[in-house]
TrEMBL record:
Protein name as it appears in the record: Probable ATP-binding protein YbiT
InterPro entries assigned to the protein according to its UniProt record, in alphabetical order: AAA+_ATPase, ABC_tran_Xtn, ABC_transporter-like_ATP-bd, ABC_transporter-like_CS, ABCF_ATPase, P-loop_NTPase
Keyword annotations from UniProtKB, A to Z: ATP-binding, Coiled coil, Nucleotide-binding, Repeat
Keyword Repeat: yes
Length: 641
């Protein structure tokens, strides 16, 4: 469908792409990966026609449409949300207007046998078929469905776009792009401003309705759910794998290991050959062999080991000042915005040294509770901070507080103390501010770069309560790993608001689930929480929560909210017991079926009465096990419901 031919891009003597070629086929869902600076965004811009390569070309057939979602393009103006979304249908609306005009002409014309009349019919038929192929005339319903999928409430539809934050305006831009249904979607970090429910919806959309997709994302779980092909950009070259992202990681690791072994073997052979040449260079009896070895080295196709940065920066927070035993205690807290209740008489106790996650759909109160803890909003009820609690807070607006006239290096040097000052450039490099980037002024940084810089400042401040609100949105995978390891070794208390399942895994020991104005406490890590909900991921949790709310009576929802931890723990124990019984029954069924198959062979060879008796006993045992298995399965499904 799209052909990339000998593409080369150079910047000031630096080669970003070096004569790379590949094809994008229909239904390809390509994860475009590589270190920051490898050229992922540049590649998308070239595909979108927003940047020209130094040489080579990207060949796009005239009938192939491309839709591009950059990281920082925001809709603006006085249109409402629904009006802005419907601008995606400009082509369809023009097509519909033309069909209406032709229909009016056909209604008043009487020259039925003229060539012009026949051409008008043919043109109207063609345009009508194209209109239906592109989605028909149900513009409003399609726009509403997409906006709801991306997290908008129907009450938002008539609000002006300008009332929404940058994240929500990016969702509007994404909705417009999806509604256009281009042949090729170019998505640059589309999940940065989405909550869990919206990510799930987008995954489903891309899997079921999108054509070809080129995707740049640092969200491992999202890449795994969407991609069926992975292209890595590295040192000006590409490595193309026809597998999803996780499989690519394993295959790439194996390839690099094989490459390293081959390189080492070749280097040993080269050294041995050079030693031979040097030893016998001046011996006439060995002249032929020496010349042969010299030519052998000249013809040798040298193996090069790719320059892969396997270094791991071990970043540690400064020692946390000791706080009270309970840094955060919430009792009967209620928060309202006007007549709208966000949190209703909630209770939370977070002990010193705990690392907890706040999860749930956007708008359910996660950030609101954080603001209550920070003292940034009023509330009713009790919220106590423990003795000597020093809070380090990261949110997207923290980037706006940076001094724009300082350089990146100066910004970090101002807060770094002790030995860590000698490693500032290493730390900056781990967070994509390596080389000349550390000397940039803050005022020229993008929003994402400012957010990363604010995160580094936070990492170096001596605090004992870290509150991180979506900290991974602008970090690449290596930087996320650095941050995660730093938090794991932090000896203070941590609250993380995040939808990034992989980031939370192995980091938190308690999960607070926000929903229906309440908070439920789940002991254990993020995957313990997911297992207790009998789902595979946080997106499933969001979908099931909404579905159950819509179907079940309000009284049952209230009762569910009142289930205490012990009751949920007992329910989980019963389900696990039934799962063991189910596995035992399945093993017995498998064993009996094999024994029956063997007896049937014996019956054909030697049909004795004893064999028939054993056969009937086994058949009865099989029927009993099947009945037992069915009973256990039904009981387990009932408990899970």
């Amino acid at each position: 469908m799209i052909s990339v031919e000998q593409l080369t891009v150079e910047f000031g003597g630096h080669t970003l792409f070096d004569s790379i070629s590949f094809l994008v086929n229909p239904k390809d869902r390509i994860a475009l990966v590589g270190k920051n600076g490898a050229g992922k965004t540049t590649m998308l811009r070239i595909f979108a026609g927003g940047q020209n390569p130094t040489s080579g070309r990207v060949s796009v057939p005239s009938d192939v449409s491309i839709g591009y979602l950059p990281q920082h393009l925001l809709p603006s103006g006085n249109l409402t949300v629904i009006e802005e979304a419907e601008t995606a249908f400009a082509e369809l609306q023009q097509l519909q207007a033309g069909i209406d005009e032709m229909s009016n002409q056909l209604a008043i014309r009487t020259d039925y046998d003229s060539p012009e009349y026949q051409k008008l019919i043919e043109r109207m038929t063609h345009d009508t078929e194209r209109l239906h192929m592109l989605g028909g005339t149900n513009f409003r319903a399609e726009a509403e469905k997409t906006l709801v999928g991306l997290g908008f409430e129907r009450t938002d539809f008539d609000r002006p776009v300008g009332e929404f934050s940058g994240g929500w305006r990016m969702r509007i831009e994404l909705a417009k792009l999806l509604l256009r249904k281009p042949d090729v979607l170019l998505l640059d970090e589309p999940t940065n401003h989405l909550d869990i429910e919206s990510i799930q919806w987008l995954e489903t959309f891309l899997a079921t309705q999108a054509n070809a997709v080129l995707l740049v994302s640092h969200d491992r779980a999202f890449l795994d759910a969407v991609s069926n092909r992975t292209i890595e950009l590295s040192l000006g070259r590409i490595h193309d794998y026809k597998v999803p992202y996780s499989q690519y990681v394993e295959l790439r690791k194996e390839q690099l290991e094989q490459q390293q072994r081959a390189f080492e073997n070749q280097q040993k052979m080269i050294q041995d050959t050079e030693d031979f040449i040097e030893r016998f260079r001046y011996k006439a009896t060995k002249a032929v062999q020496v010349q042969s070895r010299i030519k052998q080295l000249e013809r040798l196709d040298r193996i090069e080991v790719e320059d892969v940065d396997n270094s791991r920066l071990s970043l540690r927070f400064p020692p946390a000042p000791r706080s009270g035993t309970i840094p955060v205690e919430v009792d009967g807290l209620t928060k309202k915005y006007g007549s709208h209740t966000v949190l209703d008489t909630i209770g939370v106790i977070i002990n010193r040294g705990e690392k907890v996650a706040f999860v749930g759909k956007n708008g359910e109160g996660k950030t609101t509770l954080v603001k209550c803890i920070m003292g940034e909003t009023d509330y009713s009820g009790i919220l106590r901070l423990g003795h000597n609690v020093k809070i380090g807070y990261f949110a997207q607006n923290q980037a706006a507080l940076l001094d724009e006239n300082k350089t990146v290096f100066q910004t970090i040097d101002d807060v770094a103390v002790g030995d860590i000052r000698t490693r500032i450039r290493d730390i900056l490099g781990a967070f994509m501010f390596g080389g000349e980037a550390s000397d940039k002024k803050v005022k020229v940084l993008s929003g994402g770069e400012r957010s990363r810089l604010a995160m580094i400042r936070l990492l170096l401040e001596p605090v004992n309560l870290l509150i991180l609100d979506e900290p991974t949105n602008h970090l690449d995978m290596r930087s996320k790993d650095v941050l995660k390891e730093a938090i794991k070794t932090f000896d203070g208390t941590v609250i993380v608001v995040s939808h990034d399942r992989e980031f939370l895994d192995g980091l938190v020991t308690k999960v607070y689930e926000f929903g229906h104005k309440k908070i439920k406490e789940h002991l254990g890590g993020i995957y313990d929480f997911l297992q207790s909900k009998k789902i595979e991921n946080l997106q499933e949790l969001e979908r099931k929560t909404i579905a159950s709310t819509a179907k079940e009576p309000a009284a049952k929802a209230v009762n569910d909210n009142k289930l205490d931890y012990e009751a949920r723990k007992e329910l989980s124990r019963q389900i696990k017991k039934l799962e063991r019984q189910q596995q035992e029954a399945e093993a017995a069924i498998d064993r009996l079926e094999k024994e029956i198959a063997l007896l049937e062979i014996s019956m054909n060879d030697n049909p004795t009465p004893e064999i028939f008796t054993d056969y009937e006993k086994l058949k009865q045992q099989l029927a009993d096990e099947m009945e037992k298995w069915e009973s256990v399965l039904l009981e387990k499904e009932e408990l899970e419901r």
